[in-house]
Design goal:
Helix content of chain B: 25-40%
Radius of gyration of chain A: 28 Å
Shape of chain B: globular
Structural class of chain B: alpha/beta
Distance between the termini of chain A: 58 Å
Largest sheet of chain A: 6 strands, mixed
Order of helices and strands of chain B: EHEHEHEHHEHEHHEEHEEEHEHEEEH
Strand content of chain A: 25-35%
Oligomer: heterodimer
Structural class of chain A: alpha+beta
Chain lengths: 601, 358
Amino acid sequence: MSLERTRNFSIIAHIDHGKTTLSDRLLEHTQTITEREQQDQLLDGMDLERERGITIKSHPVTMNYVAKDGLTYKLNLLDTPGHVDFSYEVSRSLAACEGAILIVDAAQGVEAQTVANLHLANAQNLTIVPVVNKIDLPNADLPMAHRMLEDILAIPAEDAVPASAKMGIGIEEILEAVVTRVPSPKVIGGDDGLLRASVFDSLYDSFRGVISYVRMFSGTLKRGTSIRMMSTGKIYDVKEVGVFTPKMTKRDVLESGDVGYLIANMKSAAEVKIGDTATESQRPAPEPLAGFKEIQPMVFAGIYPVSTDDFEQLKLAVGKLQINDAAFQFTSESSAALGFGFRCGFLGLLHMEIILERLRREFNMDIISTYPGVIYEVTKTDGSDLEVDNPTFLPDASQIEEIREPMVKAFILVPNDYIGEMMQLTMEKRGTLINTETLDDTRVMLTVRLPLNEILVDFNDKLKSATKGYGSMDYEHDGYEPAKLVKMDVLINAEPVDAFSSIVHTTKAQSRGRALCAKLKEVIPVQMFKVPIQASIGANIIARETINAMRKNVTAKCYGGDISRKRKLLEKQKKGKEKMKMFGKVNIPQEAFIKVLKSGD
Amino acid sequence: MIRHLYIHVPFCHRICPYCNFYKHKPGATDQTAFVSALLAELDFRQHTLGIPIIPETIYLGGGTPSLLSEKHLASLLSGLTSRLDLSHLKEWSLEANPATFGISKARLMKEHGITRVSLGIQSFTPLVLQTLGRDHSPKEATAAYNHLREADISSVSIDLMFSIPGQSLKSWSETLIAATSLEPDHLSAYNLTYEEDTAFFQQLKSGTFSADGDRDADHYHHASRHLTKLGYDHYEISNYAKPQHRSRHNQAYWKGADYLGLGPGAVSTVRPHRWTNIPDTNSYIHRQNPTHETETLTPTDFTLERIALLLRTSEGLPLKHLSKTPDIPSELATISKTHIILTETGRPLADEIAVAIA
């Protein structure tokens, strides 16, 4: 089919605004998939995705659609992950398209994520097909949705297609709009015919190795082609090419404008870099397609086996995970408190949670993770720079000229009534207000610049509770900023416990230290002696608690009939003691670490 | 040779809500048959064990041995005397509860060789006795004590309990004063323990009762101070004795001596074996071999038991039971060349310390 009759597009939406339902309807309407298969396909997805109602891994699909002009069009729908952790992947998927359907909920209107997604789509110069979804809802407010499209997103309201994906309303109109409004695929490099295929996603299959999802921008790709990945310079022989119908279907050739897959002899996900350009090794394109970046983890945490015996097993597990998730990084580290484990890098908190869940479920690992942190840039007094992702490696304060922390630009939508609360939360989180935009009579959009570290754990929860659930937020990364940051240590019985060290802002050190000491006092079992718990910055103690000594723990009666029971109890307690993470003379049980590391503050 | 004999008499008037020993109301149990069964078990053990039983101590526990009628008590005691070589006997104890015997039963005990009676008074506060479900009054307790003295039992011990829900330190102190004013030769002061399968445990779980670690410690230390001041030797966590009045039988348990237990639910240890009799009086009466469960003790098991039990005593734990001399702070224990002995601060932490050094 010709280039003129091909359309490549994505669907972007705020969570729960109906992206998946609309995708399903499009597939159904074009008879790409029957209702029955749809159910099956749904069940094939990862449990985690369905539980969280989000798409983690994107699956492109090719549909054939007979338009009103009587011609058959090839529509390639590229699904995109719906979370900011994966915004680079989203940007690569969007770069493989010429258009995007932007869904707005007819009852809820524009949300923060809608704005963030539109920014991403605009950055790729995509043609936007606005769709106002869920018009069948009793509380649907079409004029409101239209007004918001115009006011917030600067999209003409008359362009919006009213629809209800659930009821099957407006599906035909949406497909027509894609055909008539979205341009046919652009070709890069004029008529030079050189191969340029952009890898916008990949999948690891234990039998076939890495399957790269590609958008063809020029040239042709077939079995036997010798390709070079332009970022790594590595050369591979193509074993197979094909398209998604929606199942992977082998084809002889992929041509300019096509969306499909290629399989070469790549053994791990790390060999293929999202956003990389595949070209012919013998006749390479002069330069790669624009927009490629090395993925950098933004969030770091230590992962440790609960039982030290499981270290080797955990090593195998994280290695296997990395084979199919190149964004996940790890290096081995050891902690005096937790033993041997791994310092891991993640794209964001959701990504971290997914990895932890997969380790627990798929690999059956009993693990704990340390408090998540970000990566800091440090300039030392001797002029050298280093990056620190683990508080343990922060140089002594006397050697630090400047520390810079990663920032985000957050788009926060709140009802007018909660602006005060939101501003307070922003201040509490060391944010600065960049812009306030009135959306309508009831809502505003705040653009706020915040340290990433401040929104890592509980920001979204606090936002929700400050706005009674009405507020929503999305964000993008926004460079580094110098800040007054210090390393805070925690000393238990006068010994520092590395797992509880953190890098904190000076204005927050005391409250954080107090909260941490109080929490530790709650979870560390009473010992046979008095145990001081202290938070310190350098030599300064900034918070302190004391666990009073245990006074009595002894069985009342021990006679002839009680001895076996007594011995068995002692054996059990002894085993329990082996499981505990020993530290100095204070036994800090695993549960205590978990409770503190989970508690957030 | 087996030098220590325990005999379990499982009958109680009332079932105390904190007790998890094997016991029941006498009901329709034929006491004559029960006494015969005990003596039959002794015959059976003498025949099957292949080791001489020459007791230095005998202990009749329960349940409530003093609940046996004079006739049955006499037949049990004389049955034992006629079957055993008592030439080495140094102590013959019997557990008794107030209001289950009078002067005549007390005299009968004395006549049949009982040298030591442990009297389950528990408290001199009526309200606390009520909480404990005991059916005697403080007055009856004193009367029972006086019967034993009048019958010239050579060593009389009083059992008390502390840290009972509703019991203040003042009330515990008054009980201690009342008990010591009787000048018993020996006192056992037990912290109330919430044992599984008891009514108290249920009440603890449901929140009616609450455990109070501070009250436990306060009561414990008060008893220890009060009793040692009066000349009682605090020779084990829960036990206090005037000179020459320690319980030899219980010390034998702690040191790891072999002992034979007769009766339903009774435990015996003849190294390397330990067995428990069937905890059912009716089955016990009708069985020739009442052994119910047997375990084999390894040397490690034996060592662990010594650590668990001897740390509790004023003699302390011989260091030979430990692979290395432990590093215990001096406020918790003193370590001599041969023994580790817990201090007054360390003693109530004996279980904790046992885990740390075992």
